[in-house]
Amino acid sequence: MRDTGPGFSPADKDRIFERFQQADNSMTRRFGGVGLGLTIARDLVALMGGKLDCESTPGVGSRFWFTLPLPPLEAGDAVETDVSQGPGEESVLSEGLLKVLVADDHPANRRIVEIMLDGSAEVISVENGQEAVQVFQRQRPDLVLMDMQMPVMDGLTAIEEIRRLEIAAGQTRLPIIMLTANAAEEHVRASLRAGADRHLAKPITAETLFTALQAVLN
């Protein structure tokens, strides 16, 4: 992306990616904004294994780009795809809009899932396990995507509490997917032992997410 804005000096390059920072604070007063856009963009790219970078000339403008480690497209891989729906979405959502509870303490992680499920599900976002349990009690969702490490109450404890409440109330088992950066075998075992139905390691793609949804919902 290229713009013709005020630009910034090389000394400001690292600072503009920090939270609540802008190269020129007067821009906030004139045009609004809180200095989070580039931070969120960088985090979203990093979660997909990529890197966001930029170059700028004061008074001329800036150029931003990102790189992603995508596999090369093999001959025969290109197929026509209905971009209006995600992979496997039709079979997963054949009975109507899903209500998906997403528990993650990082706003960028929650936003990635919201983007992937946009138009396919009603997403309820919370930032810790305790809030996830409270939402489960108030408005039982169709599925839960739970991070493992969160403040207040971690994902493992939250899943155990949800399973306990289900049994006490005689409810059917709620599909729960652990969605975490912890990918070691011990973490997978801990997730399943706590009551998760599936363990997905970040970063994820829309395809892996919808495949997991199909697996636990069908």
Please, how many domains?
Answer: 2
- Output the number of helix runs: 8
Helix content: 25-40%
| Rg result | 20 Å
A few lines on this structure:
This protein has 218 residues and is α/β, with parallel strands linked by helices. It is elongated and about 65 Å long. The protein has two domains: 66 residues, Histidine kinase-like ATPase, C-terminal domain (Heat Shock Protein 90, 2-Layer Sandwich), CATH 3.30.565.10; 118 residues, Rossmann fold (3-Layer(aba) Sandwich), CATH 3.40.50.
Question: Could you walk me through the main structural features you see in this protein, from its secondary elements to its overall organization?
Answer:
This protein is of the alpha/beta class. It folds into 2 domains: 2-67, 2-Layer Sandwich (Heat Shock Protein 90); 98-215, Response regulator (Rossmann fold). The protein contains 8 helices and 7 strands, in the order ααββαβαβαβαβαβα. The protein has helices at residues 26-31, 37-47, 89-92, 107-116, 129-138, 155-169, 185-194, 206-217, and strands at 51-57, 61-67, 98-103, 121-126, 143-146, 176-180, 198-201. The chain has a 5-stranded parallel β-sheet with strand order 4-3-5-6-7, sandwiched between helices. Strands 1-2 form a two-stranded antiparallel ribbon. α7 links the parallel β6 (176-180) and β7 (198-201). α2 (37-47) crosses α4 and α5 runs parallel beside α6. The chain is elongated. The chain starts with 25 loop residues before the first helix and ends with a helix. Residues 25-34 and 78-94 have low confidence and may be disordered.
